[in-house]
Amino acid sequence: MLFQEEQVILIIIAGTALLLLLGVFMISFMLMYQKKQNKNLLEKENLKASFKQEMLKTQIEIQEQTLNDISREIHDNITQVLSFVKLNLGLLNNSLDEDKKVRVNENRELVAQAINDLRNLSKSMSFEHIGEQGLVKVLETEVGRLTRSGIINATLNVEGDVFNLGEQRELVLFRIFQEAVNNTLKYAKAANLKISLYYNEQLFNLLVEDDGAGFNTEKVEGKGGSGLRNIENRAALVGATVNIDSSLGKGCRIKLSFNPLAQQIYANGTHSNSPG
User: Fold this and answer.
1) pTM
2) Quick one: which of 64, 51, 70, 50 has its CA closest to 234?
3) Which among 271, 229, 237 is positioned nearest to 54, based on CA atoms?
């Protein structure tokens, strides 16, 4: 009788142990399965992110190459034609009376101004020029051009010790600046535009502020115009965050921030189409 009870106890213990082992096996299997699922999901998300990054990269490169081609066309052809027109007006001037000379000289000055404006426009389109001059220099030139135009009063403020952020990053930042200015001139009806750069080893900020009409950010969130989307897409290429703060009647403030030390895909300091 005692032997039978011991057998029953052993059977119960063995059964319990077997159930425990089975439970441990099932839990381990489920954990491994879940881990594999999570890994697959992560890989899938990474592939999506990489694909989106490459699509953005390709889109921006096409835009940059197009702008560079237009820049060369303006510089090599249009400005040369206008220079020829200016030269002909000068030759014509020698055979005219004083009254007509005044009018011809006025037209020559207009042509000269058009040539100068087109050359400046050509430079602002060329990524090679931006790479050579650096971000601060090209922004100083653009701010001066905006103020001289009389359309808006633009100022540039630079804080911190300026350092090279890398050709690609500086190109992207300049294009974001151009997009922000374009939005201001088209929609804001602003009198003043302030651009601020803040340099720090672990933080860079680009701030574009205007005192224009502003807009309701809640209404445009998720369905903003192409200008705002372009700003966000370009910022994504350099791993930057963008904050757009605006309200009706209170102007607009666009702030872009990133860590200059952080290495990002496509933010390695070299543009794929540049000589470097």
Assistant:
1) 0.60
2) 64
3) 237
